[in-house]
Design brief:
The structure holds two protein chains of two kinds.
Chain A (H helix, E strand, L loop, with lengths): L4 H5 L2 H8 L4 H20 L14 E5 L8 E5 L7 E4 L5 E5 L10 E3 L3 E6 L17 E5 L5 E5 L8 E3 L20 E9 L9 E9 L5 E6 L11 H9 L3 E3 L6 E3 L4 E6 L4 H5 L12 E5 L4 E5 L6 E5 L9 E3 L2 E3 L2 H5 L6 E5 L10 E5 L2 E5 L10 E6 L3 E5 L6 E6 L18 E4 L5 E5 L4 E5 L5 E6 L16 E3 L29
Antiparallel strand pairs in A: 1-30, 2-3, 2-31, 3-4, 5-6, 6-7, 7-8, 9-10, 10-11, 11-12, 13-14, 15-16, 16-17, 17-18, 19-20, 21-22, 22-25, 23-24, 25-26, 27-28, 28-29, 29-30
Chain B lengths: L5 H16 L10 E2 L1 E5 L7 E7 L5 E5 L5 E6 L3 E8 L5 E6 L16 E6 L5 E6 L1 E2 L3 E9 L5 E9 L1 H6 L12 E3 L2 E3 L2 E9 L5 E6 L23 H4 L6 E7 L4 E6 L4 E6 L5 E5 L26 E5 L5 E5 L11 E6 L4 E6 L14 E4 L5 E5 L4 E5 L5 E6 L2 E2 L2 E2 L2 E2 L18 E8 L24 H7 L7 H4 L10 E2 L14
Antiparallel strand pairs in B: 1-31, 2-28, 3-4, 3-32, 4-5, 6-7, 7-8, 8-9, 10-11, 11-12, 12-15, 13-14, 15-16, 17-18, 18-19, 19-20, 21-22, 22-23, 23-24, 25-26, 26-27, 27-28, 29-30
The chains are: A mainly beta, B mainly beta.
Amino acid sequence: MGVTACGNKENKPWSRQERDKGDMMKRREFITGAAVAAAAALINPVKALSFPTVFPHGTTIYKPEKCFNGYTVYGTEVESEGTVLIDMNGNVVRQWKDICQAEHPPKMLKGGFLAGTRRPSPDKKGRVWQDPSSTDLVVLDWNGKVVRSVPRAGMHHDYQFEGNPVGYYVPGMPLDNYQGKMLILSHKFTHNQFISDKELYDDYIVELDAQGNVIWEWLGAEHFDEMEFPLEFKKTMYKYPTYSMTRTPGRKGGDWIHVNSASYLGPNKWWDEDKEKYAVFNPENIIISCRQINTSFIIEKKTGKIVWQVGPEYYRDSMWEFGGKKYKRALSKLGQIIGQHHTHMIPKGLPGEGNIMVYDNGGYGGYGERNPGAPLGWSDARRDYSRVIEFDPRTLKVVWEHSAKQMGMRNKYQFYSDYVSSAQRLPNGNTMITNGAVGQFQEVTPDHEIVWEYISPYYTKNGHYNLVYRAMRVPYDYVPQLKAPKETKVTPPDNTTFRIKAG
Amino acid sequence: MLKLHRWHMALLLGISLIVLSSGAYAYEAITGPTGVLYYDQAKAYQGYTLFDPTVASKTTYLIDMRGNIVHTWKSEYTAGLHSVLLPNGHLLRAGAVPKKQEVGYCGIGGAGGIIEEFDWNGKKVWEYKMFTPNKEIQHHTFCRMPNGNTMILGWETLTNDQARKLGRDPLTIPTKPVFSKGIPHDRFWVDFVREVNRKGETVWEWHITDHIGTGPKQFDINYTLPKPMGEMYATYDWSHFNTVNYIPETDTVVLNSRNLSEFYFINHKTGEVEYRWGNPSAWDPNAKKPGYWDDGSQKVFGNHCATPLKNGHILLFDNGSERPQDRRSRAVEIDPKTGDVVWQFASRHTNSFNSHRQGAVQRLKNGNTLITSTHGGHVFEVTPEGEVVWEFVSPIFAGKTKAVVNNSDAFPFNAHIDSMINMVHRAHRYGEDYPAFYGKTLTPKGYIAGDDAPRFFRDYHAGAGFSAPAAAVKAAPAKAAAPVEDEDDGGEGATMVGY
């Protein structure tokens, strides 16, 4: 399933590229390109590379009456542009050029505060906890004054503030306590001979108290024994633990699981219902998404132990067990998750609360036996489309799924971001989705109608991409310093008749 | 008179068998089979077993569950006393450097002298020699730390004068040399630990002589076992450690003393004794000493192989060698937080499992425990419930392969108490998923007891007319079967096809 027919068609240069482990970004770009090219070749073999090169940017669809209207904050991933805050019509209402220069994600806090990384100097963009070359994690007030700073945090991909489990808008759980406890996802270099003989660029999760003291920490490699992987998986991971150059100057490391989100479960209905039966859903527990192993875990806060694992296999004979009950085929019905992002529990107070939401990228991920699409066995699972899934954490029953298919599109790659991306549940039941690889944000209704769409106009100078890691919607009152903007609907032209004037 | 029919007799025999089998298990024979004796595939932890025959053998064997040799390594030294397989496929092995029968050499049981590292193909890639007559010698074991350093357990000399200065009762210091293994001893050999890096540089040391005294954090230099245990026990072989392990999470060194019958947690930073367990009478004047008939406050006797577990517990081989009440060996798991024994295994009869000296334990990933009962060359695996699911008797007797063991294979009484010459100090099981095996071909290269030897485990199971042994048919403890939710397989799977 991972490797589709079209994946094999145009991939001659691919194996050459596969050997080039030097630059992660290059490979990602290449794979995106290759996948799109291959997919295009499948539908229109004469015109390879027929993915549109001309298309509008900014807000392209907007139906104000169907949206959860507010501001959207995102990191442009362009070093010189930093972070922007836009209104529904795509107007930039504020920009912070030195926050999240190519790190992510920025977060908008209630009261006009912005959180994100800041480089102590332009060359310091490391992602290792307390390393001299690492970025700081800062919170600024609306005037740009630093109100909290975690020096050399090396934050990558996620962090949380006390009082709000997921770091996005939840009614009744304001994201405003920047002075309290913080959870930060960072890295540490470590060795574990059972994982690999190479040095690991391991994920390190740390909780700080208000004074910045470490009160809890967790290092992935220390919990390898609690993770369940098949033998072939472990063999390939031992040899190819996603080993490449890190952002710490001169240091290579195996980004073996690649954690890309870390959030608290937060108050939830399961825990409210039965604290014994649903002990794994203790609100203080932490849920993480590990993209390279196609797996998400819940970490028990009290012990650091892994108490819930979905992945890496989703076969018909993979057995799911929960609360002493076995569920045949629950995993195969959930479907193979690949390279996923932003696994989190929908917080209490939002539609779908208690369910797990995942942006299941597809793309590439996992470890296993080699095959023509993955000649080293590295990232052996591949799929050329994405989906957002919402499922019951007990039974894995899918409650809601969104992909090109549900939107009635013929070609599944029309909803596709092979890396980055996210999904935020909004109070009106809509879902704010970031298809990050193509810089596209979509607010969709439960019935899969796109009611708002925006394409980031911020491209890197040399890379020709407009990547966005995660865009988040906040209500207008999160920024009391601004007057609520005008909401003007945007109706796109009919693509089939729209022409660009010649001459 | 009642005439007994054949079926009557059969019935009687059957009943008597049932009655007998419910009592203590006692299997006694002069001649017995070697090799793999029993193998319950469903319950055993699948993998490969590594062991070094202790007596006059320079070969390290890796065998599969059925006793086939899948790999061997050869050293120029006999075992001193065991080896481990590193995750990268290298063998780290302690060897015994030949000793002269002169004063200055160490003839205490367990003396080795060198740690060698071989790659999978047997090429030596690293070594560290700790063998200086009149000074120091590696003994028993070693421990490779996660940072690549190696901790080595050693004995160093302490002259009679130095011992006196440290408080040793002069009356207990011999005036004539004491012989062990033909070597005369005129000074103490006391324990120390040296941590060396890859380059062989010393990065850390710990000496028992820095911690002499009384009280919970010190070692009582006058604590000795009575002379009948062997003259060295009461004199120059005072502390006799046999284990060094390391717990990276807490930066703790684990040591174990046979003579003091204790294990210790040593703070790697300060060298301080942070915890001790096993024999309060070794340091606490108020503790009840073992008597002729009762154990007093002492928990274990002559223990070996203190092994830290993931759950913070310690797994120990309790030899029971000097135990007043019941002289037999056990595997015990201790929770250091409470000091309680939380699990143990002992056989019903000492014939089945009793190693007067040495011995080893290893907790396996599936929860089973691999036990090495050294003196019988006996390695077996037990479940948490105490069921033996794999059993092996080493067929390597001083370098010779023998399919049967008999009375002639026993050590002369005074050389090794109750011991056979197929001794194995420590065996280790490595799971099939152990990284050392990645990319290796593990082709069976013949049966360990010789290809013409009976495969007892196999014949027993597959041979016609044999019924399953009691252990194998014993029903697993009744567990409520987990309900299975098997819903109709919906259409979702189908959409994956064709794209």
